[in-house]
Design the sequence.
């Protein structure tokens, strides 16, 4: 306290730096979250550098090497480290390219449902009244469906493809963001600084987006990371049911579905895509946990 | 029942079994699902027929074991009028119905039973036409029986006359199908009197090799040998269907000796089954075909050269190896080799990418991009259509054809692929119903089927005339010739890429003898025996 008192004029850059340091302090206290973060960063690097890292093209079918076991097993081949699938494609390369799909799905779905959720939630929380009732009942209806079932129905109507699958998942994740935003907005709206801003003549748009919204971001960020992993899982489930990414896209869930029948005969075709999904989702969830610890004032112990 | 009592009962049962093992032979079949009911006329699933039509009932004609050739069964002989519309059947005398706990017959088979069994399926006024709520005579309707059959008459106790509205060559084969099973009218009458009509679908009584004992939903069906059977008496005393829906579990049970025979193994497991010294595995080409149907009404697929060029670029062997693990044979003709009139003259388009590329160039096709429709479900004739499509996609890319794979939910897929303006070639298949080539050639490729089952939307005059002529010809040698010619026309025109005929694989315990694989996919046990 004494230090900050001395350097009296706190610049906004310094303040931001100090907030970041504080955030990192709480975040790094959670060992799992840090591991999750590193795994996630590694995944991003793999996805971005896929064309450089992957030993083979994910689409090239080596017909003479069908269902080859991983390199360390008898009959394996070092040029196909994790073995090959039923049409002779290198599994490692497909997993590496699959990271692109999964991260893109996570990013796209989260962005879509986050923006949509914030807009709708802000309107509902700020204006209240009948708009609020209509919006919230609509969200309740969406929530009443099991999310995967709703996504399946939507995809069945729109036609199975990755884009349609992502839109469907975004829609099913929407209500969580709407509810969170609305609740935060309602809590913030009655605060003095909002009243002050309104008295100063700020119009509703400015009030909503510049005054209130920045103070509601913490829960939204946490929810966004959790949605990120949810989206990856749901997309994999859709792919597994044949309603998501279409062949020959090396999407993990689709790979899993295509290989199901080999579970007794060629375990590697099923195991590695499953592991990839598990590791990714686990890492992101751990990271989300750490974020909650760092961002939620109620969790802070100091 | 408490545990102790159960244990004691089991002990007694075990000792009883061991003392009588030499005299009573029990054959256990791990079936793949529960029957929908026991009246075969109401249903279409093979699972239902295996548990009802084949053990319990007989038909006027039946398929000779291992073939699709109808032969005399309950009808000893028959006579067809010159114009092919009047069929007179002479019934086998002294055929006894089964005596069971719930019914004791007083008379043998007569014309009344035949008229009852088939009549109720086509006559809406029959008291037995709607005895099960919501039940329909799906097969009889699908075969057009109500419109085809003008009348069924009793000439005398052992003679039945069926009059048709028009000649129909496959009629005898149709009568050999499970839905035309002959039930006991006497039994039906007694049920009607007792006001328990629905029992006809639960406690079956027929003339077949085994009589029905008990059925426990989703668990087990028990039959016992019919001592009064008119044919060769079965060699086993008890027949048990242990219902096991999961293929992997069926395999485990077979390995553990809990059953003697199982249907429909996982393709991936077959290799280890063949290696197991305690098992033997029968294989046969199934009565089916998987194909890629081009839309022959759309450019450039309206040109036969383009279709043949694409056919040449499909590596059928890779598809068979990768999708079926070798449990299928590459297809040349639109009908399977186990069917009569299969043409050996036709030559398949050999896999040759260079030739395919050249043919495309000669036909003036450049930068072609197309869609391949892949079915979303696994069917016996095509276990994994998406994987097959991926292999085609890869091969087509090598001759400069870009492919996008599309898929819809199954019912939607069937519906949309019928559309005359469908964009793209569709993977689909067919399993034969009655072993008649008409059931493939006219049903799937005739002009009448355009916009329906004819997914290639292909109407070729020469082909259509041949199969239409064969349909109204009764002489089989003549029909064979016509169908062989039709297959040559088909191959020259190539509306489909014929992909494969899947193999029906039946694993069984080493000691099982006398089981004949049916090309129609039926499982019948009247001739099986087990070595001790």
Sequence:
């Amino acid at each position: 306290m004494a230090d900050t008192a001395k350097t009296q004029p706190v610049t906004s850059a310094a303040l931001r730096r100090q907030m970041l340091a504080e955030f990192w302090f709480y975040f790094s206290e959670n060992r799992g979250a840090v591991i999750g973060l590193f795994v996630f960063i590694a995944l991003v690097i793999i996805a971005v550098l896929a064309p450089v890292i992957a030993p083979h093209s994910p689409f090239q079918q080596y017909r003479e090497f069908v269902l080859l076991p991983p390199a360390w097993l008898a009959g394996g081949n070092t040029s196909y480290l994790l073995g090959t699938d039923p049409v002779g494609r290198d599994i490692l390369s497909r997993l590496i390219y699959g990271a692109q799909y999964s991260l893109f799905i996570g990013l796209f779905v989260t962005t879509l449902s986050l923006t949509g959720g914030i807009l709708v939630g802000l309107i509902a929380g700020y204006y209240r009244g009948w708009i609020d009732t209509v919006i919230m009942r609509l969200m309740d209806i969406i929530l009443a469906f099991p999310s995967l079932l709703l996504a399946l129905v939507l995809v069945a109507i729109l036609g199975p493809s990755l884009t349609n699958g992502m839109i469907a998942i975004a829609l099913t994740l929407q209500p969580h963001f709407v509810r969170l935003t609305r609740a935060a907005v309602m809590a913030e709206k009655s605060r003095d600084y909002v009243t002050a801003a309104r008295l100063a003549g700020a119009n509703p748009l400015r009030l909503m987006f510049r005054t209130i919204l920045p103070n509601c971001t913490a829960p939204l960020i946490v929810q966004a990371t959790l949605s990120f992993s949810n989206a990856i899982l749901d997309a994999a489930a859709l792919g597994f049911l044949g309603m998501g990414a279409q062949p020959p896209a090396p999407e993990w869930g689709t790979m899993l579905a295509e290989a199901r029948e080999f579970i007794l005969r060629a375990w590697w075709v099923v195991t590695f895509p499953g592991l990839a999904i598990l590791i990714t989702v686990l890492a992101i969830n751990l990271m989300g946990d750490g974020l909650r610890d760092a961002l939620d004032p109620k969790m802070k112990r100091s | 029942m408490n545990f102790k009592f159960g244990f004691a009962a089991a002990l007694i049962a075990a000792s009883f079994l061991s003392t009588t093992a030499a005299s009573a032979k029990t054959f256990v079949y791990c079936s793949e699902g529960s029957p929908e009911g026991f009246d075969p006329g109401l249903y279409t699933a093979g699972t239902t027929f295996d548990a009802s039509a084949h053990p319990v009932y007989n038909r006027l004609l039946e398929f000779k074991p291992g073939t699709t050739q109808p032969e005399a069964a309950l009808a000893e002989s028959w006579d067809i009028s010159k114009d092919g519309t009047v069929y007179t059947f002479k019934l086998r005398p002294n055929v006894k119905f089964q005596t069971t706990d719930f019914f004791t017959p007083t008379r043998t088979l007569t014309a009344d039973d035949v008229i009852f069994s088939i009549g109720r399926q086509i006559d809406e006024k029959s008291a037995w036409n709607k005895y099960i709520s919501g039940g329909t005579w799906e097969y009889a309707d699908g075969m057009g029986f109500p419109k085809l059959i003008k009348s069924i008459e009793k000439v005398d106790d052992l003679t039945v006359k069926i009059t048709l509205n028009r000649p129909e060559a496959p009629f005898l084969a149709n009568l050999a199908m499970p839905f035309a099973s002959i039930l006991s009218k006497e039994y039906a009458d007694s049920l009607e009197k007792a006001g328990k009509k629905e029992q006809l679908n639960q406690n079956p009584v027929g003339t077949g090799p085994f009589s029905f004992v008990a059925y426990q939903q989703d668990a087990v069906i028990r039959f016992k040998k019919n001592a009064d059977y008119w044919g060769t008496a079965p060699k086993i005393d008890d027949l048990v269907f242990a219902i096991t829906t999961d293929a992997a579990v069926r395999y485990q049970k077979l390995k553990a000796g809990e059953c003697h025979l199982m249907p429909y193994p996982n393709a991936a497991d077959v290799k280890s089954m063949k290696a197991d010294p305690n098992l033997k595995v029968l294989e046969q080409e199934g009565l089916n075909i998987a194909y890629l149907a081009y839309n022959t009404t759309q450019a450039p697929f309206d040109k036969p050269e383009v279709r043949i060029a694409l056919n040449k670029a499909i590596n059928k062997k890779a598809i068979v190896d990768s999708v079926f693990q070798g449990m299928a044979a590459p297809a040349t003709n639109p009908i399977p080799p186990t069917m009569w009139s299969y043409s050996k003259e036709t030559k398949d388009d050999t896999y040759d990418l260079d030739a395919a590329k050249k043919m495309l160039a000669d036909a003036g096709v450049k930068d072609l991009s197309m869609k391949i429709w892949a079915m979303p479900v696994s069917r016996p004739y095509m276990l994994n259509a998406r994987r097959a499509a991926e292999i085609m996609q890869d091969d087509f890319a090598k001759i400069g054809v870009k492919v996008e794979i599309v898929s819809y939910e199954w019912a939607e897929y069937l519906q949309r692929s019928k559309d005359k303006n469908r964009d793209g070639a569709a993977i689909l298949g067919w399993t034969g119903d009655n072993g008649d080539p008409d059931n493939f050639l006219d049903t799937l490729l005739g002009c009448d089927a355009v916009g329906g089952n004819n997914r290639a939307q292909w109407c070729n005059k020469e082909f259509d005339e041949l199969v239409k002529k064969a349909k109204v010809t009764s002489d089989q040698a003549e029909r064979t010739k016509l169908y062989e010619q039709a297959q040559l026309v088909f191959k020259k025109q190539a509306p489909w890429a014929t992909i494969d005929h899947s193999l029906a694989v039946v694993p069984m315990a080493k000691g099982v003898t006398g089981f004949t694989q049916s090309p129609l996919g039926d499982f019948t046990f009247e001739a099986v025996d087990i070595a001790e």
